[in-house]
Amino acid sequence: MSKKRKEALAPAAPVEALGSKEYDKELKRLHGELVKLQQWVVAKGLKVCIVFEGRDGAGKGGTIKALTERVSPRVFRVVALPAPTEREKSQMYFQRYMQHLPAAGEITIFDRSWYNRAGVERVMGFCSAEQVEKFLESTPLAERAIVESGIILLKYWLEVSPEEQERRLRDRIDDPRKTWKLSPMDVKSYDRWDDYTQARDDMFAATDTSWAPWFVARSEDKKKVRLNVLRHILDHVPYEALPREEVKLPKRKIKRRDSSSYPFRFVAEHY
């Protein structure tokens, strides 16, 4: 691993947490820019693929939610594939992922991707060492083909410390709103930190290329990593604000009438 990458993954010095008011203000501004990006992508037929990877509890889901909550799901499509079926296991490894790559006017977001093979499949023994080696050899070629087809490919690794990861996983156990986030695989993977670290480093060494580089985002502070990633995406997908026509609501006439006699079933107003 290069000195530069070692520095990038070294623990960051503690910094002051970002306040909710400041976070909401900047998030609103970035959401406005993402709407402009969306309109540009559709108008110009751009194809964008964004890959999110990282350990369990690194903040991928929250970052993806922040990215997509104010844009159209028909343009920003999130792909989070379940475990492969028996049929899919018999296919070429990349096959079930390639069908989800974006067409013109689309932005595809992978919540975990083909890099499952370099991470969880390797660490948990779901594939052989030979399969991992072949994956690491073939992925740069596959990603070159993706990029040369005209797709803008962005790959993000969210880096979290073991202490913060443990805090978040315990929160999933204790908070009834988050229990669905804790999978049996999370628990099995919990004591394999060093194995995942080695898998990450080998993955970076083999697949951090000039045409499809990895970008590492520190995720100790959830609010900051969301803003940093959104801003990075906006900086790396060229776009311009399209002219916007002035919109005026027409005058309308609503006929006055007595309340309807239809027996509507109203939702009880408990609040």
Question: What does this protein look like?
Answer:
This protein is an alpha/beta fold. It is built from 11 helices and 5 strands, in the order ααβαβααβααβαααβα. It has a 5-stranded parallel sheet with strand order 2-3-1-4-5, with helices on both faces. α7 crosses α10. It is globular. The termini are far apart. The mean pLDDT is 92.
Give the spatial strand order of the biggest sheet. 2-3-1-4-5
Order of helices and strands: HHEHEHHEHHEHHHEH
Q: How would you classify the quaternary structure?
A: single chain
Shape: globular
Fraction in helix: 40-55%
**Number of distinct helices:** 11
Structural class: alpha/beta
Query: Gap between N and C termini, in Å?
Result: 57 Å
What structural keywords apply?
single chain; globular; five-stranded parallel β-sheet; 5 strands; 271 residues; 12% strand; alpha/beta
Task: Report a brief summary of the structure.
By secondary structure, the chain is α/β, with parallel strands linked by helices.
Write the layout of secondary structure elements.
Blueprint: H1 3-9, H2 20-44, E1 47-54, H3 60-68, E2 76-79, H4 86-89, H5 95-98, E3 106-111, H6 120-123, H7 129-148, E4 151-159, H8 162-174, H9 184-189, H10 193-207, E5 214-218, H11 222-236
Parallel strand pairs: 1-3, 1-4, 2-3, 4-5
Helix pairs in contact: 2-11, 3-11, 7-10
